[in-house]
């Protein structure tokens, strides 16, 4: 038991909160409590400083407790805490959509607001299916995801996702008519590649195989993360995303990039699609949109997709979809303040200037005990450890715990340790992150 637990909270009081994606009993026996955050750091409830190596959960891109966001949110709460966006509007929703359209990849200037990555994904899948129907191809309902993909936890996102633990429990309740591309992780060919691997672009051709199986006329959309985060940082081989784009174009399939973690500067451009120079038809975002401060997501759509809906009688609702909190005014205020910070501090391109130093730092872990791969892109890094026999994930979980004890927060998924620090990180903090992780790996059998 952790004797230092906040006096106000007894261990019994830990039971009511059913924690997400957490080993509840293990956590509640030995809680790890964060109490405060500022800049690059968290502080635990017993006052220990912890360097944030994962930007919260890949979302706090401008660092913690930004005064400008607090002020914007406070002001908006005092002015108008809520306003509906069904058949009504409020100005900052339109202002934010315009600001996002200015940042967006070419032509992706129609923005639908949600409250999370999961909602953005389900929204994008529904838009893709409805788009085909609007253009007279209503038989196109099939969705193609990818093995090891993560697209949140809604029924749509879970179904196109490809992480077995997120799927197996829900068996037959998956959305029907979904198929999956193979993932692109191949340690045998690509171990310790710096940046994007050269081997593997041909894996995109598997889409042609699925099209031959199902026929293009049944397929609405393909959804992939430009870089998979949750499955342990899986990078697109050079040329892979371009090839997917070509095949989708050839067969009139909507291409969706899920940029929930890659959006808002993670890979050195505002979006990965800009960094990799491949433009999708729909793009899902959340997380960094508000610097993690207030829940919000956004789906970016090519204008041709939006325009396909804008037909029929002018008094008819074109898309029967939306959330009470779509474009919530407080979230809009937080997002606008966040975009101001990103612009003022050049954060949406800062990862590009740090990428070389970051790459050298994370690849310095090559050669440490049990390290079987190191992967990096922009300000994303991953170290893959050899699993303990019969105990997948155990070694990496121990590494995660020890890092936390030594004042560094990383993320563990399977046998991968992932890092995605706030984009404000400085050289000495990169060094501390990697030195701490290295020393823990050395000390972990
Ligand atoms: N798509 C992608 C690509 C994501 O990474 C979601 C959708 C869902 O977003 P919401 O806001 O509904 O959680 C995500 C979420 C991790 C980790 O450590 C990643 C996510 C969430 C929690 C942990 O890899 N990504």
């Amino acid at each position: 038991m952790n004797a230092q637990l906040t006096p106000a909270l007894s261990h019994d009081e830990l039971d009511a909160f059913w924690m997400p994606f957490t080993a509840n009993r293990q956590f509640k026996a030995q809680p790890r409590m964060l109490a405060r955050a500022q800049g690059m750091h968290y502080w635990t409830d017993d006052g220990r400083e912890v360097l944030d190596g994962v930007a919260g959960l890949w979302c706090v891109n401008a660092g913690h407790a930004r005064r400008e966001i607090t002020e914007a949110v406070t002001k908006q709460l005092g002015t108008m805490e809520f306003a509906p966006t069904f058949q009504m509007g409020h100005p900052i929703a339109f202002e934010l959509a315009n600001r996002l359209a200015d940042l967006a990849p070419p032509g992706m200037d129609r923005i639908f607001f949600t409250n999370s990555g999961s909602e953005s994904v389900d929204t994008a899948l529904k838009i893709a299916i409805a788009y085909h129907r609007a253009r007279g191809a209503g038989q196109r309902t099939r969705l193609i995801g990818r093995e090891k993909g993560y697209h949140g936890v809604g029924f749509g996102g879970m179904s196109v996702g490809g992480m077995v633990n997120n799927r197996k429990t829900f068996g037959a309740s998956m959305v029907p008519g979904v198929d999956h591309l193979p993932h692109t992780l191949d340690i045998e060919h690509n171990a310790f590649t710096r940046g994007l691997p050269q081997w593997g672009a041909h894996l995109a051709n598997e889409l042609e195989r699925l099209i031959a199986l199902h026929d293009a006329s049944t397929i609405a959309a393909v959804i992939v993360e430009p870089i998979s985060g949750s499955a342990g940082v899986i990078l697109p081989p050079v040329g892979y995303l371009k090839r997917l784009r070509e095949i989708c174009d050839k067969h009139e399939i909507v291409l969706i990039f899920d940029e929930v973690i890659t959006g808002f500067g993670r890979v050195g451009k505002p979006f990965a699609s800009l960094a990799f120079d491949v433009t999708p038809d729909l793009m899902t975002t959340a997380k960094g949109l508000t610097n993690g401060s207030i829940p919000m997501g956004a789906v970016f759509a090519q204008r041709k997709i939006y325009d396909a809906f804008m037909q029929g009688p002018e008094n008819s609702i074109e898309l029967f979809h939306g959330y009470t909190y779509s474009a919530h005014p407080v979230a809009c205020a937080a997002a606008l303040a966040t975009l101001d910070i990103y612009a003022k501090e050049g954060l949406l391109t800062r990862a590009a200037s740090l990428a070389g130093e970051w790459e050298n730092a994370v690849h310095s872990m090559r050669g440490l005990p049990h390290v079987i791969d190191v992967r990096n892109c922009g300000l994303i890094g991953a170290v893959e450890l050899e699993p303990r026999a019969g105990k997948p994930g155990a070694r990496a979980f121990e590494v995660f715990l020890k890092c936390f004890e030594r004042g560094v927060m990383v993320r563990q998924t399977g046998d991968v340790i992932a890092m995605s620090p706030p984009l404000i990180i400085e050289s000495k903090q990169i060094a501390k992150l990697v030195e701490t992780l290295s020393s823990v790996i050395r000390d972990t059998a």
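Residues 57-58, 116-118, 121, 150-152, 225, 229-230, 258, 260-261, 286, 411, 413 surround PXG (CB under 6 Å). The chain has a mean pLDDT of 97.
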